[in-house]
Specification:
Structural class: mainly alpha
Number of domains: 2
Radius of gyration: 24 Å
Number of strands: 0
Strand content: under 5%
Helix content: over 70%
Length: 193
């Protein structure tokens, strides 16, 4: 099993390396395409013809979105670069999370008692994430019945409703999610998971 974990680590390192070079290539392409679009390079030269033939067709969907949002089409290369960098960071984060999950599963399966402890730890982690998602959703005009947020209300209402009966709100601020978060952390520490 150690070979699987080390192999996965090598895979993530390879993906990280490939994403870095993809971001570098995207940055160079964005710079050249931006220079052609803003006429900082000769619009009739070979570089401009190359950009119009091969790069501009790739930028068309991004240009349409930018123009619909009220932006300038000349910014399409930079938005593409932002998409590549942020998408790469999200991919690396997801792969690291999955790697940690794999290590947790291997650790939990090494003996039967550890797996139960790991499941309880994951349950506490899920409840904390649901509390955070619920609080963040109140900062934006998102309905609690939205399919993206409803799960957090379903998972946390059982512990917040009794707290709301006991703890008053501070003006427009409901502090019960904060108290519930600290109570979850306290119970988790008392259980030792």
């Amino acid at each position: 099993m150690d070979q699987v974990i080390s192999g996965y680590g090598a895979f993530v390192a390879g993906v990280r390396y490939a994403l870095f070079w993809l971001a570098v290539v995207a940055a160079v392409i964005a710079l050249v395409d931006w220079a052609v679009r803003t006429r900082r390079l000769n619009p009739f030269g070979p570089v401009a013809r190359f950009c119009r033939r091969f790069i501009d067709p790739l930028m068309v969907p991004i240009e349409h979105r930018i123009v619909r949002s009220g932006g300038q089409p000349a910014n399409a290369p930079w938005w593409t670069l932002v998409f590549v960098v942020v998408g790469g960071l999200l991919l690396i984060t997801i792969l690291n999370f999955l790697g940690g999950f794999l290590v947790d599963v291997v650790w939990g399966l090494s003996s039967p008692g550890r797996f139960g402890v790991q499941l309880i730890s994951w349950a506490f982690g899920l409840l904390k994430i649901a509390l955070i998602a619920r609080v963040l959703s109140t900062w934006f005009p998102i309905s609690p019945y939205s399919k993206w947020i409803r799960w957090s209300y379903v998972l946390t209402e059982w512990m917040l409703a009794p707290l709301r009966r006991v703890i008053p709100t501070l003006g427009p601020v409901d502090i019960t999610p904060i108290i519930a978060f600290f109570l979850l952390a306290l119970v988790q520490n008392l259980l030792g998971v």
